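Ticket #4471: structure export looks truncated?
Reporter: QA, pipeline team
Priority: medium

Steps to reproduce: submit the single chain below to the structure queue and open the exported record.
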Amino acid sequence: MANNLEIFGREFEVTDHLRDYVTKKVAKFDRHLGTIDEIRVDLSFVKAARNSADRYVAQMTVRGKGFILRSEERSDDVRTALDAALEKLSRQIDRFKTKSRRVRGDGKSTADVAPDTEPIDDDKSEEMPVIVRRKNFDLIPMAEEEAIEQMKLLGHDNFFVFYNVKTDSVNVLYRRRDGTYGLIEPRIR
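Actual output as written to the record:
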């Protein structure tokens, strides 16, 4: 497989049989989307889940040049949760492939102008107890319409940070309570 696959288990052990199952299923993504840099699969068991049908959680993140796709599903069986997350991610890949065929205003696709992405760095520092998680990510230049699509593909319901090509600045796209979108355009004084 040309991409980097990482499988993590929380509160239960990922067996070799389960690891082979995930590897076999994820290998199909390579055929559909050739620019995958990293695939991260987080499988966890939540003992204190409100509903026993939500005990196993399968979360998948696919990173590549110019995109990040993510899915999360829950079930009472780890394989069922994994299969549902894979199906959801497969639909996102099909949708992304359709959208990425469209070109930007300058004639270049998003994948062509995006810098190589680096993995998100989680820094849990005890020096600053107020900040419990810190993420670093590369901003990909895109139009507002592309930001809305990327926000939907990632499954982010609240907000999305992006570099706006039209205004040449960092913007925050957010979903309003009435289902419409808002855009924050910060200015430095």
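Status: closed, not a bug. The export was complete when the record was re-opened. Leaving a note from the reviewer for reference: The domain at 4-100 is CATH 3.30.160.100 (Double Stranded RNA Binding Domain).
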